[in-house]
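Annex B, item 7. Sequence and structure tokens for protein A, then protein B.
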Amino acid sequence: MQLAIDTLTAAFPEFDVQTQTRPGGGLLLTLMSGEQRVLQRAVPYNQCNSTLQLEWLISAIRRDLALEAGMSPVIANLQSQSRVKLPTYA
């Protein structure tokens, strides 16, 4: 669990990253900018313990922050979009 907290903290250095343990073993992630709460998200236990899913979470949060700021992220930069190629049919 500490690895997930350290990874999330390192991924968002511009925010004060706060975490609370949830009853199911997951985390409640809160990104703060000064006194203002910028984002709050519940992270399930399984997502905290999978490096790949944690990377997807970070990518999704970055996308959400960019959209909220009025910027549209480039699709190629979204990890969840560029990891898997679309299936081809013969």
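Protein B:
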Amino acid sequence: YVYRIDTETFEIAQVIPVGSVPKYVAVTPDDRTVLVTNWCTWDLSIIDAATATENARIPIGRYPRGIAVSPDGRTAYIAVMGGDSVSKVDIATGETQSMGYTGDGPRHIVISPDGATLYVTHNHTGDVARIDAASGAITHRAATGVEPRSMAISADGTALYVVNYESSTVTKLRSSDLAELDEGGTDYHPIGITYEPTTRTVWVACYGGSILVFSDTTPAA
């Protein structure tokens, strides 16, 4: 199930059936469509936000996880963690195609603000790939640590922040060429990350239950 929660009352407003073991949720820029990757049914749920109805379920492959949506809301990019590629999905038609090899165990994916570039973490090979969204060509690759997992991108698109699960670190990369700008230690097994633009802080959640807040002061340019 996917739950819609009222952020003022924290009450559950809607409960929407999807596939088995939903892992990641994304919303299109117009807030009309919700996308959910289902880990154990190997598919993508496409939900109409207004009616809270699953309109389609698209086969993806073994263990779909991270989702990035193009700025125009037409295309979703899915990290297929059980393989070595990213799937490109036409949200309106459900047509799916592989973007080819990106690395082993792609887990998380973010997109640049202009929609031209994808960034993918690879859990098995321990790196991040910078990919041209139009052609699927890999332009840069950088190692960050052992089992890089979740990732965030700054509001201006100039920097990436990656949590490395087994290294217990967070790495900052320059988005243009994936040069390492900074690295810091975290608590054991960092797993979640987000960038808060108004305060320029990076929030990292760790499996032990802690949340760390880093001041982002290193320039990306």
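Comment on protein B: Residues 172 and 182 are 5 Å apart (CA to CA).
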